[in-house]
């Protein structure tokens, strides 16, 4: 007798990402933008230097793609803090201003996960205390996402990478200062 659907590697990675986001919010008051990934040789965590502008965001997305290619990643999750704006029931979304400038914006943590052929997303609305500290995550009551697009989507190659492709990606990462040691857990990070 089956106990229901089996939890996939992506489901486990998404759950881990949610725990990481909550831990970060409680300890740091923010969530560092992160890539969590599982490859045949283990799992790893990559944090970019910053996401201060469009160029830095594009760089993180492209670096995440190179990491997935270089290490043959089978499941990956990107975690980001963002501003979100939604349309009121029965209204269309006003796109005249970016969410970061909207009066009715909502602070959220976005978790996007994927494997080859599968995408899952989770929005975690941030609830703050009156003093501005982190209280917890709320439930997203808006529409569910079944198709995620944008700079942080489709970071896993659609086909298994060749050995040559992996080596080229590792060489490109090394030129950027990102090596196997970049993903090693170091005691001073704890």
The overall strand count is 6
Task: Calculate the terminal CA-CA distance, rounded to whole Å.
Answer: 42 Å
Total of helices: 3
Beta content: 15-25%
Task: Sketch the major β-sheet.
Answer: 6 strands, antiparallel
Please tell me what the overall shape is: globular
Q: Give, in order, the helices and strands.
A: HEEHEEEEH
Average predicted local confidence, pLDDT: 85
Helical residues, percent: 25-40%
Structural class: alpha+beta
User: Which radius of gyration do the C-alpha atoms yield?
Assistant: 18 Å
Low-pLDDT residue spans = 186-190
Strand order of the largest sheet: 2-1-3-4-5-6
What does this structure look like?
The protein has helices at 9-28, 54-70, 163-175; strands at 34-39, 42-46, 75-84, 106-115, 118-128, 134-137. It is α+β, with helices and mostly antiparallel strands. The chain has a six-stranded antiparallel β-sheet with strand order 2-1-3-4-5-6, covered by helices on one side. A hairpin with a 2-residue loop joins strand 4 and strand 5 (118-128). Helix 2 packs antiparallel against helix 3 (163-175). The chain is globular and about 50 Å long. Residues 186-190 have low confidence and may be disordered.
